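Explain the record.
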Amino acid sequence: MSDTFDLRYPANGSVLSVEGLEVRRGERLVVFGPNGAGKTTLIRLLAGTLPGGPAFDSAYLPQNPYLFRGSAGFNMGLGLSAEEASRARQLADRLGVGDLLEYQASSLSGGEAQRVAVARGLAGRGPWVLLDEPLSAQDEQDRMMVAAVIIEELGDRGAVIITHDRQEAAVLGDRMAVLVGGRLLQEGPVDEVFSLPAGDAVAAAVGIGNVIDGEVVDAEGPLTALRAGEMTVWGIGEVPTGHPARAVFGAEAVTLFRGREGEAGSARNRWVGIVTELRDLGQLVEVVIDVGNRVVALLT
């Protein structure tokens, strides 16, 4: 199940003019772009808090959720059924704020308030969830925990997630839409958008990077090994063995050597592949290598 939207705001499209934005049930669409790109305008049109958008049955979590006077638990339960409120409390426990629900909402930190709002937003069972910068107030220690809860609890629901953060986009997204200057420049799988940006404007917005999906097969201290086909990627992470995972690394971090594996370099991650494409980026050259998965390197 999917829906395609044409979105304009105001009517002349001077702030936002997007044609053919596709959202699919069961997929997490990340809308990525710099500040001022029109991301929040887009999600507010979908949520119906700006005029001119579609009638979209969704739960909406704004970037700065407003908390009324009263306890955090009171705020979390507003508008929820008894079953949904119970579920929101369970989610609050998983998000580490269950013991704060009796406190006054005004006493919560920004990260705590956002996690309470995330619990409320995920508690419903509607087919779509709209999240505007859902990790923006979280510190580094809590970001991946909150992201994991969001991914698990969305289940087979569709989601539109707004972010300007590359790591957040790579972790939360199945597909990615790049918005620059109120215009949709590229939409596709996250790994494709990061590794094969459609033009200079997209490359400038997202950078050029690598996103590899696989399964965790080993761990050594803080390092985790992900297997993707015949390719193994070691990185820092805490995903348990046997679980799906995603490795993200910049194209500028990849070094190329001629010859077979082991003949040059001392890096833990070494792969053998064939250069399939070269792209002139002015002062840089983008090199696409087939190692069983697509890997992109940036060279001077």
